[in-house]
């Protein structure tokens, strides 16, 4: 099944304001916008997004009596039977129950569909629960969010009416995603209050929210530092700070904010650093601020095992035609298409919609409420293709994405690694296709050598078993249609 075409492409034009097609967005599964297939059920989000905060869906907490078989009452999502690679299956065989977690937290974990800890979770959770600082390096899409959120939520004391933990992330979209996961995992815990605060949203709303009980803050650096300096966010009792995508947070863009923020915290605090790549800036920060950190490195190889990488050698003028050919030949569940500038994102999105394909776009120059809506709707499967800048490379986890296309090839190996990590999430299969011009040829070779990976010439026919879930069983065997 190829990418769905719109029924009447002439009617649907792009809105320059909100990154979405004009006219009604069709529901999941409908021609021109919906996402079909068994993966669709994996990406439904509960609650809504409002001014940068995720709001939990109402839940009813059943009273748990001693001796109850509490697992029987769980509302588990459908079992994910897609093949998974050793990136997430090469575990020691531990169970979440082995970590002596609160039963209410375990209920949230299982209802998220997390059956067993991934390797990074096995290594990280018991150490984080002990209160020790951590420097953890693991591949994109292998469960880093769960690795720090589970011990963080376990250590929240509901009797203390104060901010006890903070998660700092580099982008607003990642803040929304992490807060949504936190709310869902903690929904049975009887009142853990999670707040997302990011730049681009109403500061007054955040100030009013902090006047009430907040236990966990998920934030971007500029906004949380602003709230701390104004005396609104009181962080003197914070005992755990997580830097997710630590390499970006400790780059020149943010490191001075991170240093200033730590100055407001208590001396006895736990710092957890998580990322797929760790440049020298991270090492310098670790030496200055972490106390005998426990180091975890699960990066024997850099790229995900389940992502097959190809390149197509084209001229700049051939790129759109090549993209049109890919859309017609590939079985795309959802795709993310990367460009190197905001202007090119909007131009390409317009071209794709003119070709008759459903398309959203997102970049940093858009108004925040429009970015929120695009992110929310794409994650919920209301559109098949998303064109974006590198804004969307950090930690964004959309399970239905099985194809990533680099319309513009990146210059840095680190950028390439994060981009292709948007497919093949949590050990599943995915495809990364790179459109390479004459000027990109040296970058291609350099990134292959830097990452120790192979990007192959694109074949005439791409085997569906490399990236389509329906062609695999749980054991990894191809399913005959």
From TrEMBL:
<keyword id="KW-0963">Cytoplasm</keyword>
<dbReference type="GO" id="GO:0003724">
    <property type="term" value="F:RNA helicase activity"/>
</dbReference>
<dbReference type="InterPro" id="IPR001650">
    <property type="entry name" value="Helicase_C-like"/>
</dbReference>
<feature type="domain" description="DEAD-box RNA helicase Q">
    <location>
        <begin position="94"/>
        <end position="122"/>
    </location>
</feature>
<keyword id="KW-0347">Helicase</keyword>
<keyword id="KW-0547">Nucleotide-binding</keyword>
<dbReference type="InterPro" id="IPR014014">
    <property type="entry name" value="RNA_helicase_DEAD_Q_motif"/>
</dbReference>
<keyword id="KW-0067">ATP-binding</keyword>
<dbReference type="Pfam" id="PF00271">
    <property type="entry name" value="Helicase_C"/>
</dbReference>
<dbReference type="InterPro" id="IPR027417">
    <property type="entry name" value="P-loop_NTPase"/>
</dbReference>
<keyword id="KW-0378">Hydrolase</keyword>
<feature type="short sequence motif" description="Q motif">
    <location>
        <begin position="94"/>
        <end position="122"/>
    </location>
</feature>
<dbReference type="InterPro" id="IPR000629">
    <property type="entry name" value="RNA-helicase_DEAD-box_CS"/>
</dbReference>
<dbReference type="InterPro" id="IPR011545">
    <property type="entry name" value="DEAD/DEAH_box_helicase_dom"/>
</dbReference>
<dbReference type="InterPro" id="IPR014001">
    <property type="entry name" value="Helicase_ATP-bd"/>
</dbReference>
<dbReference type="GO" id="GO:0000932">
    <property type="term" value="C:P-body"/>
</dbReference>
<feature type="domain" description="Helicase ATP-binding">
    <location>
        <begin position="125"/>
        <end position="296"/>
    </location>
</feature>
<dbReference type="Pfam" id="PF00270">
    <property type="entry name" value="DEAD"/>
</dbReference>
<feature type="domain" description="Helicase C-terminal">
    <location>
        <begin position="306"/>
        <end position="466"/>
    </location>
</feature>
<dbReference type="GO" id="GO:0016787">
    <property type="term" value="F:hydrolase activity"/>
</dbReference>
<dbReference type="GO" id="GO:0003723">
    <property type="term" value="F:RNA binding"/>
</dbReference>
<comment type="similarity">
    <text>Belongs to the DEAD box helicase family. DDX6/DHH1 subfamily.</text>
</comment>
<protein>
    <recommendedName>
        <fullName>RNA helicase</fullName>
        <ecNumber>3.6.4.13</ecNumber>
    </recommendedName>
</protein>
<dbReference type="GO" id="GO:0005524">
    <property type="term" value="F:ATP binding"/>
</dbReference>
<keyword id="KW-0694">RNA-binding</keyword>
């Amino acid at each position: 099944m190829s990418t769905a075409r719109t029924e009447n492409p002439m009617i649907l034009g792009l809105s320059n304001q909100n990154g979405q097609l004009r006219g009604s967005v069709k529901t999941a599964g409908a021609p021109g916008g919906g996402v079909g297939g068994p993966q669709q059920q994996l990406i439904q989000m509960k609650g809504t997004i409002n001014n940068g905060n995720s709001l939990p869906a109402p839940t009813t907490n059943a009273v748990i009596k001693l001796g109850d078989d509490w697992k029987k009452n769980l509302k588990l999502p459908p079992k994910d039977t897609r093949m998974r690679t050793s990136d997430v299956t090469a575990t020691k065989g531990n169970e979440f129950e082995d970590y002596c977690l609160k039963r209410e937290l375990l209920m949230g974990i299982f209802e998220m569909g997390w059956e067993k800890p991934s390797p990074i979770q096995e290594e990280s959770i018991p150490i984080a629960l002990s209160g020790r600082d951590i420097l953890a390096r693991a591949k994109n899409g292998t469960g880093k969010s769960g690795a720090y959120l589970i011990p963080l939520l376990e250590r929240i004391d509901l009797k203390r009416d104060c901010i006890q933990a903070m998660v700092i992330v580099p982008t607003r979209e990642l803040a929304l995603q992490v807060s949504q996961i936190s709310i869902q995992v903690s929904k049975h815990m009887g009142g853990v209050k999670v707040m997302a605060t990011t730049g681009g949203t109403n500061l007054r709303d955040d100030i009013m929210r902090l006047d009430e009980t907040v236990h966990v803050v998920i934030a971007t650096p500029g906004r949380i530092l602003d709230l701390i300096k104004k005396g609104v966010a009181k962080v003197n009792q914070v005992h755990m700070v997580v830097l997710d995508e630590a390499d970006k947070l400790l780059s020149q863009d943010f490191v001075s904010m991170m240093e200033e923020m730590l100055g407001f915290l208590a001396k006895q605090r736990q710092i957890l650093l998580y990322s797929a790549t760790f440049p020298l800036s991270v090492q310098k920060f670790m030496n200055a601020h972490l106390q005998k950190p426990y180091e975890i490195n699960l990066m024997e190889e850099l790229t995900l095992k389940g992502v097959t990488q190809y390149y197509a050698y084209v001229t700049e003028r051939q790129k759109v035609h090549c993209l049109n050919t890919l859309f017609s030949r590939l079985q795309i569940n959802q795709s993310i298409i990367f460009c190197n500038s905001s202007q090119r994102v909007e131009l390409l999105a317009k071209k794709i919609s003119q070709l008759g394909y459903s398309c959203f776009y997102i970049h940093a120059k858009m108004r925040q409420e429009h970015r929120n809506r695009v992110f929310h709707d794409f994650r919920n499967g209301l559109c098949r293709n998303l064109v974006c800048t590198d804004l969307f490379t950090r930690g964004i986890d959309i399970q239905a994405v099985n194809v990533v296309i680099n319309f513009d090839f990146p210059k840095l190996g680190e950028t390439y690694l994060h981009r292709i990590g948007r497919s093949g999430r949590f050990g599943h299969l995915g495809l990364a296709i790179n459109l390479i011009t004459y000027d990109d040829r040296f970058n291609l070779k350099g990134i292959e050598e830097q990452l120790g990976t192979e990007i192959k010439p694109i074949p005439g026919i791409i085997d569906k078993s490399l990236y389509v879930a329906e062609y695999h069983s749980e054991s990894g065997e191809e399913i005959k249609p």
